[in-house]
């Protein structure tokens, strides 16, 4: 159906390989037969957790993000380890970062947050029936955890206080799920 838009790989080179990111430079054949270069990040994928309490409040994090030199308000999230089941990753990340576990988990959707320069995907999960426990932060990981009403989170998105794309998309999904507009 969309074959007239497809680019075909001609050559590929690894430009950089870090701890979990890789940068590739590919030569591709365009639909008109010409060639072009595509540079992009290879990423193992990640999970995002929408943790909702019985009273409807939502668990969020405040975390400093070095590339933008600021603290962001975010949903708990984390990188998928090689061979790791995605739901298991979500459960692990929620416990490690927040100390909470959840009895009920529901897959929400997959998003691609940087399609022009990365193959990263994020699997979003809804977590309910939360129980508090001990956080198990990774070495070098520092973050604060807090609860907020969904109405406040929506207002923070509107005001530009939340700019993290996974958190914005998760907030909009959560609003629709909790008000019954979108049923999973």
UniProtKB/TrEMBL annotation:
Cellular component GO terms, alphabetical: cytosol
GO molecular function: hydrolase activity
Catalytic activity line of the entry: GDP-alpha-D-mannose + H2O = alpha-D-mannose 1-phosphate + GMP + 2 H(+)
Residue ranges crossing the lipid bilayer per the database entry: none
Cofactor(s) essential for the protein: Mg(2+)
Family recorded in the similarity comment: Belongs to the Nudix hydrolase family. NudK subfamily.
Protein name, as recorded: GDP-mannose pyrophosphatase
């Amino acid at each position: 159906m969309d074959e007239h838009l497809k680019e075909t790989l001609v050559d590929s080179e690894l430009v950089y390989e870090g701890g979990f990111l890789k940068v590739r430079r590919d030569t591709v054949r365009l639909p008109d037969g010409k060639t072009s270069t595509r540079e992009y990040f290879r990423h193992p994928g990640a999970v995002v957790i929408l943790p909702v309490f019985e009273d409807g409040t939502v668990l969020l994090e405040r975390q400093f993000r070095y590339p933008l030199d600021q603290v962001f308000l975010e949903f708990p999230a984390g990188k998928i380890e090689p061979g790791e089941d995605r739901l298991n990753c979500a459960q692990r990340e929620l416990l490690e970062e927040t100390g909470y576990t959840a009895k009920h988990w529901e897959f929400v959707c997959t998003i691609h947050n940087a399609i022009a320069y990365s193959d990263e995907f994020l699997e979003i999960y809804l977590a309910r029936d939360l129980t508090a426990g001990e956080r198990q932060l990774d070495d070098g990981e520092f973050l604060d955890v807090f609860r907020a009403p969904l109405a406040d989170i929506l207002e923070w998105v509107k005001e530009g206080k939340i700019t993290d794309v996974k958190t914005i998309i998760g907030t909009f999904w959560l609003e629709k799920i909790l008000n019954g507009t979108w049923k999973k």
